Fold this sequence. Notes:
- Helix content is 37%, strand content 38%.
- The protein is of the alpha+beta class.
- The protein has one domain (2-90): 2-Layer Sandwich (Alpha-Beta Plaits), CATH 3.30.70.100.
Amino acid sequence: xxxxxxxxIRATDAAAFCAKVRxxxxxxxxxxxxAAALKRRPDEEDGLQTWMEVYPAVDxxxxxxxxQAVAVAGLSTWIQGAxxxxxxxxxxxxx
Length: 95
């Protein structure tokens, strides 16, 4: 399963927030053996940017580990609104 998590942050917080997320993802890679990517939309609206964390090929239990890591990193104080999580399977698994 691939996990995609998106949310919005203030553009003025981007540099500091990026450092926090990258540190969290580094710790997840070290502790859980997962790959991670961090992306954002190129535009912004009302001073907000949309960011996305991508975690390919994780097991079902990883979502709970991720939520714990988010809490420890204190990311919720930077995020405007909710974190939205989407799960996708490879088509070969679904057919």
